[in-house]
Amino acid sequence: MDSHRWDSALDPQVVPLFLALQWAHARSLDSMRPPLVRHGLSLAEFDVLATLRNTPPPHEATPSRIQDAMVITSGGLTKLMRQLEVRGLVRRLQFEDDLRVKPVRLTPKGARLIEAAMAEAVGLTGDWIKRALDATQIELLTALLTKCVQAPVR
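and the corresponding structure tokens:
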């Protein structure tokens, strides 16, 4: 991990943690890239499919719900949805009572793909984490990061 010097006005306790989180995130993405390439998925496509897979059966959500779970513009999401639909990985539906809402459903083909890609990505990332931390450290880090995620931003 690189050492950076920052303005003394910045919290000296938080800056190293902030940077470590960014570097750890980048490293975790590095470990995910090979399986995503093998499965023909971009990181954004993986994120959409994983978001849908994470919803209760029939693994369906509105585009606005998917967008809330991701960091993507609505235009970017529309483009991704079209690409995933053309590949047969998702299906766009329409509510009969509200034609404006077009939920997106994971297809069986999309479900198989995301299951395989997720298993491979988590396996590789898990190997990397387990080389760096023991079981107790993993449990502690998970608890601490979960606590941060659950804390209100403001």
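(Above: one complete record from the training split.) The mean pLDDT is 87.
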